[in-house]
Write a structure and sequence with these properties.
Helix content is 22%, strand content 41%. With 213 residues, it is an alpha+beta fold. Strands 1, 2, 3, 4, 5, 6, 7, 8, 9 and 10 form a ten-stranded mixed beta sheet that branches. It comes from Acinetobacter albensis.
């Protein structure tokens, strides 16, 4: 498996535990994609939960998300992703990401620590969080330190998988709250749409990390 390890995100940003306790609003429901937004009392920035169902195998969906080299093709605002370390046996990895924000906003970067797991029911999860170490700060970027993001993949049939993504991130800097919350609503929707397109292109046989076999 060449340079495979998640992206998250690509700015797939936000905490599952908060999603279970906070009041959620269904912000988008179209093209078989649902996006819920919610807030906690500590932060005015929205978190999100998004889900859809694809007519593909769970292996193929997971492999796409773990394919770092292709992440910039379908993850909105993803400028670049670099694998700093990975352990396929343990399902652990460390990434450095640059987020390409629209002008005049300054681009963001972050170091992401991730964990891949498969439970007894066959549900695959990818959990990510930002850490404040592992890569030198670049003065050209605003470093994000407060980020959490999860993916889950549930096999519904031989060629059908439910994909969910959750996230939260503090964008740092002086960005209007209205813009940030609009970004939080639209980014997961656009990402899941583009993910469907990428899944339709790929014809290769997926190879998952050893931790998921």
């Amino acid at each position: 498996m060449k340079k495979e390890i998640l992206m998250v995100c690509a700015v797939a940003m936000f905490a599952t535990a908060q999603a279970k306790t906070a009041e959620q609003t269904l912000s988008i429901n179209k093209n078989n994609i649902k996006v819920w937004t919610y807030q906690n009392s500590q932060n005015p920035v929205f978190s999100y939960r998004a889900e859809t169902v694809y007519d593909t195998s769970i292996e193929k969906a997971v492999s796409l998300v773990l394919d770092v080299e292709n992440a910039v093709k379908w993850v909105p605002y993803m400028g670049s992703v670099k694998v700093l370390s990975r352990d396929d046996k343990k399902g652990e990895f460390l990434l450095y990401m640059v987020l390409d924000f629209p002008f005049p906003l300054k681009d963001r970067d972050l170091v992401v620590q991730g964990k891949i797991q498969k439970n007894a029911q066959g549900i695959i999860s990818i959990k990510n969080k930002a850490i404040d170490k592992g890569y030198a700060k670049n003065p050209n970027y605003v470093r994000l330190n407060d980020y959490q993001g999860d993916w889950t993949f549930q096999k519904l049939a031989n060629n059908k998988v439910k994909v969910s993504t959750y996230g939260y991130a503090n964008p740092e800097g002086s960005i209007p709250l209205k813009f940030v919350n609009l970004f939080v609503e639209q980014q997961p929707y656009q990402m899941l749409q583009k993910m469907k397109t990428e899944l339709g292109k790929s014809s290769s046989v997926p190879v998952l990390p050893e931790a998921l076999r």
